Model the fold of this input.
Amino acid sequence: MAAVKIASSPSLSVVVRFRPIHARENEGALSVCPRKTGTPIHLTKTKDQLSNRTKKVERVETTTTYSNFDHVFDCGATNEELFETAALPLLTHAIQGHRVCLFAFGFTGTGKSHSVFGDPASGTTGTALLAGLRLMEALAVLEGCEGCTNPRLRVGMYEIAGKKVVNLMDPELSEASVRARGSAVLLRTVKGGRPMRRAEVLTAEELEAAVSAGIASRKTGTSTIHDQSSRSHAILEFEIVTEEVVKLEEAVWEAEQRMTTVSNERDDAIRKEAAMAGEKALAEGDLQERLSNLGEAYFDLSNAVDAARKELEEFLLSSPPLLRTRTAFCDLAGADWEKGTDVQSNLSRSEMATINTTLLAVKECMRTYGSVPRPRRIPYRNSLLTRVLGGYFEEKKGKVCMVATLTPSANLPTSLKVYER
Done:
């Protein structure tokens, strides 16, 4: 019997969820769905092979045990059970002022989107929305606190498809640019450089409407496995803000814009003079004096940006921990590979390769993040998705949960191969 151990650590938990078997899969299905919730998975496979002893073809059974999971959900588990076991511990940690993230990872058609976002058509609520509703209940803690005027839940939702980040909270589905600031990554609108549009909600109805609108805008496609396969990585983020936080964030953005304006003016002056008079213009006194003045202005504005950022940071550190809460739910695109699916076009082949490359980067981040002791460097810069979520991997006291979705049908070995990767 072979054994495969899955790494787990205090900061990383791994749970497995089997989806129910479809009617069309009954014929020839491999029944391996556990009868009750447990931690190991035993997979028995049979194959015919030539016996060295009898020189005849004999049927041989091999059993592989997958263990060290934090939890295994059987086919009858609900999203509410998944939330209570996998997401609620993350929320409990998050409201203490930390970053937490839940990933849904698995083969195409194994129920990742159902686990994270649910199915509005059937009235099934996803774990992400359940978490948002629970965070809204926590807003009552801030009532009456100094500097906590009008607390509300901020909801951001965006998808990453290829090299693009699309804001699903924007009806126009505007594209966002990714800007690095130290180890942090900022998402800004391509036009204007403002922070990405996010919804701020006060009621459960507003929260449900915002999440439903984002889900409806997500990119899906058809594969030979699933006719509504997610072809992008979708991220839903929650944070709690107040009037004071919003005002300080606006001050940071305005300071950054003033600094950017001066920087652009400096660059434009150099390009314009060089185009008109050639490189000799760069040595002329008037141009050098103007550039020197712009440099001094840029230096002053840079200090103003640092001061605005420091004021925001100090305010958050002196505020209740709930204002430092950051919670993300990531529904990863379906994992595929060419040998297991029919690739119908070069475009779909390229899309598949991009998705799998990103999933490999996520796996490497998880492997490093869950190591004990944790290495100082986590390779989150290897893909656009992991760069955007880099703050969650950098958080020293943060927590991450991986929900591995599997199917109990005959292609379970295929699903487990994806998970082993």
Summary: The CA atoms of residues 17 and 102 lie 14 Å apart. The first helix runs from residue 79 to 94. DSSP finds ten helices and 18 strands in the chain. The first strand starts at residue 2 and ends at 5.
